[in-house]
Amino acid sequence: MDQSVKPLGVGDAVPDFQITTYEPTTHGFGSFDLAAQKAGGRWSILFFYPADFTFV
Q1: Please, what's the b/e burial string for 6-26 (b: 16 or more CB within 10 A of its CB; e: otherwise)?
Q2: Is the full-model pTM beyond 0.70?
């Protein structure tokens, strides 16, 4: 882990990021871009659940 990255706390703003996602409706992969969600005025709920749906 990069030592310059500090953990987020409750109420902190999440920095913009892009991630690869699994799209169950198309049975393929897609992407999520937080900046695009914000620009479109859409709300997002972000959570982390380690090992859930992990491809092994």
Answers
A1: eeeeeeeeeeeeeeeeeeeee
A2: no
